[in-house]
Structure formats: structure tokens, C-alpha cells
Write a structure and sequence with these properties.
It contains 25 helices and twelve strands. The longest helix is centred in the middle third of the chain and has 29 residues. The relative contact order is 0.14.
């Protein structure tokens, strides 16, 4: 769209109307600004739109009354935090409350809040942490409000039987990407989804003590005893005793902002930091333990202390937390040297902004193409600018079904030395609940091992996931099915039809995305009623057309990543977040570059870190493009 067309559409050629909304002295100059910003016109015609519609285009930081960079929020009043949430979450989950964005406007124009409030300056809670998940379709509780789906109708199969008869298999079919696809997926999921689990359930207690409002224990089968499952905490004011259907709460922001590294509230973030030069607290590994000089989050002998509590879940997850701690500290050191006049807080905030952009670049340019395959362009359109009317909230069905990619997990993972020679193989179940072993062995050898093997096709689960996870106490496949019922998801067919525009499965014999043997097993399990198939089960077993997951999960996953991008005022390509030169440099970043910058000993890496490689195609790290931090040089922050 040309400048003249934009001006004509805005009605600004004859006269400029009164401002519709202002931030300080920064104002939109036409009442149609928001409408055209939502159509992506800010990115298509930036020259005229950024001048006429700075508020709607989200670029007031350069035109407001803020006399200097404000790098600290005024916290004279308390918002929700992890500590506050835990102390108040007794019978239900407390929620973040609205805030007046004007209090910290100069900060909000430049930096993200940790909890996502005021990302959208028109509504402080759009994109905030500690808010209910979004629903793609209305809830489907048996009583309309609270009762677990299938608990009253008794029409759904025991999740454990579904696992035993259908989902469990030790036949490992590979997919094209390597095991880092799985690991990045887990690390990324912890960035923007954290459910709030309840408590008080135990299979060894009497049935009466396991209240159906608190527990969704999976009944025993011939192969396995009862599996304890807590209901997710519901948002206060929803569920039993109300007329509002039960809603679950996401404790994270829906943005790709590296909150698993920094925390999703300022109290948590401050507890991880050193005040010196904007760095994270860290422990250096002694040479006698290998991987000389490697930095890890503090208290490495016990458990890594990071922005997310789930680090011990898997060695690979602990490795990525160590890698991103090193990345932050490296960038912070470099920025401090480039801009000696910056305060430690300015260094920290600028580094956090860059690290969040790294995650966005890797996710949209490398991870999603590997996950969704050739269908990517039709599922995720090109970026057209920030759209303040887009709700970025994480969909319940995304967090509770489509992005629970546990089927990608291999039974075992190799560990390879600096020459890519395998010297150890570890089962998945051995690599859980003890992240101190990551510290002892370092991250390089784990990374080499993950790159050298395929991820597993996610349509089935290995025994390591269903029988041996977390000391044999957890069956991830069965719990995922039960979680969907706990959260009141509609059946699989409804998402195919209403959400994704796919034909409903009317007959098992005509379900083209699933092979005949699987169709017959499902027919038996769901008593010849395709309309009852659980979302998770139906989505998992679909045969992929292009990428790693089938069409229904691809549709739900793509929807989330589009909304998390377009509804994020701080997405790295949004004009004004970074300079055009900085954006171009960020676009050259890659996971390979991150691994090179944070390595303990390795000096070479394969350029495409999500493709299987035994090191044969590794390039010297000096040849892999990395961020040009001199583009962040601030003339006002130089020594005389």
C-alpha cells in the first residue's frame, strides 16, 4: 500500500482530525489508526503510519515525553508473583489484576514487564501471566461447569488402557529433525506455559478422601495400579459453586520472552541476579570436574536455581538453562564494555530484550519449519506488524494437548565427546530428577549427542515415557489424556471441524489420516463412537502430512504461534523495538550460533542445529554468523 493510499484511507489529505488516543505527547492523529494497524499497515507503509499512528503502531518510545531511558518499574504497589501466588492458592488460583500502565509508562514503552502486564497499553491484562488460559472452543464439562469430562457419562475409556492398547510402542520410527527438536520444544513450552497443579490426592487413600474436585486419579488396570493425578487449580470465581465453567490458570506470559530463564515476576528475577554489570548469579565448574570454567546457575550441587521450577525434569532441559545463562552473561559483559556509561540495570534490561529476540528468531526461523514442515507458510503467514486487538493468551488446548510433544522423546540418548565420538548412552529415565549430573558432565557432550540422532515420531510413546518416567510413578501419555478431560476439552472431532476446517470423522473406516490397525483399535476403545475421541488421542495418532505432527495439532500449534507473535508489542520485528540494522543482525542468529557462543570446549558446530549430523558438516564457530553488538553502541554512554 502506497503512502498516498494510506493518507486517503485515513482521511488525512484534507485535514488531520483530533487525536483519538495519546501516551504523553505521543498521539495518533486519526481515529482510523487502530483499524489500519490491525491490518498490518504499520509494517507495510511504515514511513507514513509511524508518523501518523505512533500509538497504534506501538512506537511512542521515540516520541513521548520520557526524558531518558527508564529501566526500572515502580513497584510501590504489588502485583502477582510466584511467592504471592503460592501463598494465596489454597482452594483456587488467584489472578493478576488490572494495573494503570501510566504509572510506569516510560518503562513500558521501552521494556517488557516480567509478568506481561502493559504489553498491550490499551488493556494491561492482555498477555499477562497469572491469567486464565484462552479456550479455542467452549468447555465440555459433564455438568457444564466443573465435572471432569466423562466422569458422569461414563462413555470414555480408561486413559491407561488407551495407552496400553494403542499409544505405547517400543518400535521407534524416526523423523527428519534431530533430538534437539524435542529439547527446544520442551524449553520453549516452559517459556509460555505453566499450569497450576492442585494437591491432596493419593491413590493409597480411600476413594472418599480423593475428592473429585481435587483429584482425577487414573484407575488401575491389569498391568498397572492406580496413577495419582491432581486436578489443575481453577481460577477463583469459576467451577464448583459458581455458574462460570471451571478455567485453569497460566502462570506464564504467552509471549516468547525467555521467562523460563528470567522468571515471570520481578521478585523472581531479582533473586537470580548479581547487581554487578547486569549478570546472573552463577557457579563456575572446577577444572577437576571437567568442562573447565563453565558457568551454571547457582547451587549446582543441589538443583539449578532458574526462572522456572521444572529444570530437574530432564538433563537436556538443565543443559539449555545453563546455555542461556551463559548467553545472557556473555551479552551483558559485551554490552557493558561497549557502553561503559550504562547502569547495571540498563545492561540487564537490554540483554534480556536481546535474549528474548534470540528465542523468537530460533523459534520462527528454525524450530517451527522443522516441526511443521512444508506446510509452514500456509499455517503461519509473514509478519505484518503488531496488532493490539489480537489476544495472545495461550490456548488451553495448545498447552494441554497439541504442544505436549512427549512422543518425540527417545528411549535413550548418546553422549559424544568433542570429536563427536560416542562414549556413553543413557536411557531417558536415567536423565531425570538430577540436574547436578549436567553440571558434572557439561553441556557440550549432551548437545553433540542430541544432534547426532533423530527425534522419535510422536505418534507413539516408548516405555521410558509410559512406564519408567520419574522413577516409574508417572505415565505421561495417560496423564495427558486425563488432563484434557480435567480441563474440559471438546472431543477431537470438534477441533477438526470448527477450529481447523477439516472434515469430521463420521466413520472409523473413512478416517484417512490414520492407518487401518489404529482405526480398529480406536473403534474398540471408543465403542464405535468417533464423536467421543479425546482431543489428545486423536491429534497424536494422526499421520503427518508435511512436518512432524498431524493436521489438527499443526493447526492448533500454528494458531498459537501466530497470536503470540502478532499480539506481542515487543516481538523483535515490530518497528521501534530494535533499529532496522539490529533486526537484520538478529535475523542472522541461529541455534548453532548460540551453542558456539556458550560452548565449554567445542570450536565447531553444524550450521543447522535441528538436522541430524555426526559432526561431518560442522563448521568453525568463527564462520557461523553471530550478533553484531556494536549496533547497540550508545553515543551517550561512552567514557570521555
Amino acid at each position: 500500500m502506497g503512502i498516498v493510499q494510506v493518507l486517503l484511507l485515513l482521511g488525512l489529505i484534507a485535514a488531520i482530525t483530533g487525536a483519538e488516543q495519546c501516551i504523553g505527547s505521543c498521539c495518533d492523529k486519526d481515529e482510523q489508526c487502530l483499524k489500519f494497524a490491525n491490518k498490518g499497515t504499520c509494517a507495510k507503509s511504515p514511513k507514513v503510519m509511524l508518523e501518523i499512528c505512533p500509538v497504534s503502531c506501538g512506537v511512542c518510545s521515540e516520541q513521548s515525553e520520557c526524558p531518558s531511558v527508564h529501566d526500572t518499574e515502580d513497584r510501590s504497589w504489588e502485583r502477582m508473583s510466584k511467592k504471592k501466588f503460592v501463598s494465596e492458592a489454597k482452594k483456587c488460583a488467584p489472578l493478576n489484576q488490572p494495573t494503570d500502565c501510566k504509572i510506569n509508562m516510560c518503562y513500558h514503552l521501552k521494556y517488557r514487564s516480567f509478568d506481561g502486564t502493559c504489553n498491550n497499553l490499551n488493556d494491561s491484562l492482555v498477555g499477562a501471566a497469572y491469567r486464565p488460559f484462552k479456550r479455542l472452543l467452549d468447555s465440555n464439562y459433564d455438568d457444564g461447569v466443573n465435572a471432569v469430562t466423562g466422569s458422569l457419562t461414563k462413555e470414555l475409556p480408561n486413559p491407561r488402557i488407551v495407552t496400553e492398547k494403542l499409544l505405547r510402542s517400543n518400535i521407534s520410527s524416526p523423523v527428519v529433525p534431530n533430538a534437539l527438536l524435542m529439547q527446544w520444544g520442551q524449553f520453549l513450552a516452559h517459556d509460555f506455559t505453566t499450569n497450576a497443579p492442585g494437591g491432596g490426592c493419593n491413590c493409597t487413600r480411600s476413594i472418599r478422601s480423593n475428592s473429585p474436585n481435587k483429584c482425577v486419579n487414573i484407575p488401575s488396570t491389569k498391568e498397572r495400579g492406580c496413577i495419582t493425578v491432581h486436578r489443575s487449580l481453577h481460577a477463583c470465581g469459576t467451577g464448583r459453586g459458581t455458574k462460570t465453567p471451571r478455567e485453569q490458570v497460566n502462570r506464564n506470559t504467552p509471549f516468547i520472552d525467555a521467562s523460563q530463564v528470567y522468571g515471570n515476576d520481578q521478585v523472581t528475577a531479582n533473586s537470580l541476579r548479581e547487581r554487578l554489570r547486569g549478570s546472573f548469579r552463577s557457579a563456575r565448574l572446577a577444572a577437576s570436574k571437567g568442562a573447565k570454567g563453565a558457568m551454571f546457575p547457582r547451587k549446582p550441587s543441589v538443583a539449578m536455581v532458574v526462572g522456572d521450577d521444572r529444570t530437574p525434569a530432564f538433563y537436556g532441559l538443565g543443559a539449555f538453562h545453563a546455555i542461556f545463562l551463559r548467553l545472557h552473561n556473555k551479552i551483558a559483559d559485551d554490552l557493558g564494555n561497549i557502553n561503559p556509561g550504562w547502569t547495571s540495570e540498563r545492561v540487564f534490561q537490554e540483554t534480556r530484550k536481546i535474549v528474548g529476540a534470540y528465542m523468537q528468531v530460533i523459534t520462527y526461523q528454525e524450530f517451527l519449519p522443522a516441526l511443521l514442515g512444508a506446510d509452514l507458510d500456509s499455517l503461519i503467514p509473514p509478519y505484518s506488524g503488531y496488532q493490539p486487538t489480537v489476544d495472545p493468551a495461550v490456548a488451553n488446548e495448545f498447552a494441554g494437548a497439541a504442544f505436549r510433544l512427549h512422543g518425540l522423546i527417545r528411549s535413550s540418548f548418546p553422549v559424544r565427546d568433542k570429536n563427536w565420538q560416542e562414549y556413553k548412552k543413557m536411557n531417558f529415565s536415567e536423565m531425570q530428577l538430577n540436574d547436578s549430573r549436567v553440571v558434572q558432565g557439561g553441556t557440550d557432550d549432551l548437545v553433540h549427542g542430541f544432534i547426532s540422532v533423530h527425534s522419535k515420531a510422536p505418534q507413539r510413546f516408548s516405555d521410558e515415557v509410559t512406564e519408567k518416567a520419574f522413577g516409574g510413578t508417572v505415565d505421561l501419555a495417560s496423564i495427558n489424556i486425563q488432563r484434557g478431560r480435567d480441563h474440559g476439552f471438546q472431543p477431537y472431532n470438534e477441533y477438526r471441524r470448527k477450529m481447523c476446517g477439516l472434515p469430521a470423522v463420521r466413520s472409523f473406516s473413512k478416517w484417512n489420516e490414520v492407518n487401518k490397525a489404529t482405526r480398529e483399535q480406536l473403534r474398540e476403545l471408543y465403542q464405535n463412537k468417533p464423536e467421543n475421541i479425546d482431543l489428545y488421542v486423536g491429534g497424536v495418532v494422526e499421520k503427518p502430512e508435511f512436518g512432524v505432527v498431524g493436521p489438527t495439532f499443526s493447526c492448533i500449534i500454528a494458531d498459537q504461534f501466530v497470536r503470540s507473535r502478532d499480539g506481542d508489542r515487543f516481538y523483535f520485528e515490530n518497528p521501534g523495538v530494535f533499529t532496522p540494522e539490529q533486526v537484520e543482525s538478529l535475523k542472522k542468529e541461529s541455534l548453532a550460533s548460540v551453542l558456539c557462543q556458550t560452548a565449554e570446549k567445542m570450536t565447531a558446530m553444524v550450521p543447522d542445529a535441528f538436522q541430524v549430523d555426526d559432526g561431518s558438516n560442522a563448521q568453525l564457530c568463527t564462520k557461523i554468523p553471530s550478533l553484531d553488538l556494536t549496533l547497540w553502541k550508545d553515543p551517550a554512554a561512552q567514557e570521555d
